Amino acid sequence: MGQGLVTDLYELTMAASYLLRGMTEPATFSLFVRRLPPERGFLVAAGLDDALRRLEELSFDDSDLEYLSDHGFDANALEAFRELRFDGDVWAIPEGHVVFPNEPLLEITAPLPVAQLVETVVLNQITYQTALTTKATRCVLAAAGRAALVDFSLRRTHGIEAGMSAARAAAVAGFSGTSNVEAARRFGIEPVGTMAHSYIETFSDERDAFMAFARDFPDRTTFLVDTYDTERGIQTVLDVADEMHLHGPLGIRLDSGDLLALSIRARNMLDQAGRPEVTIVASGGLDELDVERLLDAGAPIDVFGVGTRVGVSADAPALDSAYKLVEYDGRPVMKLSPGKESRPGPKQVYRSSLAQPDLLATRSEATPAGSKPLLSQVMRGGERTAPPPSLASVHERLSQDLAALTDQAKRLHSPEPTPVEISPALEAVTSAVRADIRAASAPDSG
Amino acid sequence: MGQGLVTDLYELTMAASYLLRGMTEPATFSLFVRRLPPERGFLVAAGLDDALRRLEELSFDDSDLEYLSDHGFDANALEAFRELRFDGDVWAIPEGHVVFPNEPLLEITAPLPVAQLVETVVLNQITYQTALTTKATRCVLAAAGRAALVDFSLRRTHGIEAGMSAARAAAVAGFSGTSNVEAARRFGIEPVGTMAHSYIETFSDERDAFMAFARDFPDRTTFLVDTYDTERGIQTVLDVADEMHLHGPLGIRLDSGDLLALSIRARNMLDQAGRPEVTIVASGGLDELDVERLLDAGAPIDVFGVGTRVGVSADAPALDSAYKLVEYDGRPVMKLSPGKESRPGPKQVYRSSLAQPDLLATRSEATPAGSKPLLSQVMRGGERTAPPPSLASVHERLSQDLAALTDQAKRLHSPEPTPVEISPALEAVTSAVRADIRAASAPDSG
């Protein structure tokens, strides 16, 4: 199947109009987030690899063209769509970098119809993956090295594709594993898992269930202890561990109730039984605020399984992203819609350190002393300039950025993003284009 | 590729343990939502068709088995997985029905390892599609026939798969079209679209852009008027329409600013120019509360394009769904975890009318007089009992349910679900099983 219909109708309509009129000069579109959701002081750039893959896959097959033919597209447009591939240039901020509002995550330069057509899929992939990766990163900030995190989100993400992205987002952020086996395979993440309540319930009692599990998976013995009564469950684990002489890595999982009180009680019981090495895993509708609250209160939890609320970025499931035309045929353009004004021309972001404001600049101006450009060319003429980065390298990039990010931007409650400055050259071109548009559309001009 | 690894590791671990132990007697799992999110008075059952398709596709190929072999699964388990297919029975509430908490949306009976393995994908598909369809239905309730709705969500859904589901959810709810062309083709929905700001900006002025578009797509002329200045944009549309003698269906789209004031102003301008037939489309970050507020205030908006906030169900992006073992080998089971207690045994929901409480009952008891069972068998021995229903029939089912639903459950603000009653037989088995578990796990029982 071609992927050409995976877009909004208006992208196809506009592309057809451009093709009909020979408007195929290069256009540059810029993808950025206009403003942060509440409780976000930064974003983590993500989704680029999948966005580029979608660009590589753009094509129209016979059945796509037949559908369009039945829906008002003429033969000329169909012929042009048949030949159409993504053959443009892409500049982007590599995945894993911390970014702020109005900084372009990606800029595409391609013949106008092509650059327009890809808007929908590129926005889709970058928007949701950036949202999920940012949310997972907040969990890592909440844990602050005091506990490990694992991804349990697949069962309630918005589809299987989103589940794969959520697992990858978690790994980029620094989670140590995922329950999602396909994602573990695909991205080289450690697959992790314990047992479900149903496992306990299929046996006539909890003790039999624990013994069976320990016998079948002696190296994977994290026991779920809250099916019937948590304290009794922990005692049963201790009894079974003694009886079976279990000495591998053991753990218990708490999935309900007062996790602070239960984890303290569990730690005491385990330590008093001479089992200080047994780890405590907590799960059950947790998010980064729960992780922070529990650890701040001294909960002796070693591993947090976080799922749904992180896998859907529950408090901010979408970002106010935009994909805006900034230049066509060498002419910088912008729109003036209230609250949605854009800045013209291809851009670059210069960063000296995350403690200082980034500089949003035109792409052509010189790099300020002591700064580095954040966007680099990732695709040239439709071909990637380099293979996709490893997940480890994306994680490393994020870790370095987090280490350098200000506490104001990083804190979980009421964070404040580092401000972004606009270069004088970009201010100048913005003012000039705005004046040109106002003059052109003034009543007395027409 | 097999789909067997698209699951949580613990499903595979438990399935392997069951297979090793010959624990392959029939198990029944029940999928339900424990409680409604805030501001929901009902849910709309959805996702069943995709869930069943996932069941049909369950299999493990060589590469899946090789991965599992490298991750602690032994040869016996791998051989069993190689042969494994979904061969169970499924009962479900058909898509489009209004449902309430604790009512099983779906129940699966299959050999224990199989019924366990499919938990993750079935929960995934039903949870998010039910959330999205419920959200879209709230938009239809907000519009209340006063305006049409179209889906513009693809660019910010959680992936392309979610975008397809969001478009389908919208059509089930009663939206009249979607911008998502692939979804339009796949589900037989009307594809809809206008133009983007970028289209206007590629021309030297707005007038040239409108004229070009009208010439290229004379039957698709909804003009986006807010790129530079909305009132001037509307005047330009009127000028172009006169100059080009446009008499097909015309529309304007407002995508920013004060939509109430602008739509009133636009309506006046259009009417005074003798163009009462020109429709007004509004878009831009809208949700069902905006739709209700604007229409209640008298905004003369004919069509709302709703996107992101509906396509991610922004205020309730996930549901508190569960997939719980309720019977194994003829023995009813339940868990007692605080706040997560489940009810044992296969179930049925009997409904007399949506103005009366539904009856949650055991599956084997007789249908009460005047009631109908909501769950029907949709799969037998791994085969569907009927082809998937048409989207039109799912929409019709929902429409009938909405017509019968109480105003308390339907209203957008602080709705109250119709309560669900428990049959005496289900209460009895619940009490009996609870007592059995408590007796079995009491300290003095050994």
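qc> Chain A has a mean pLDDT of 95.
qc> done
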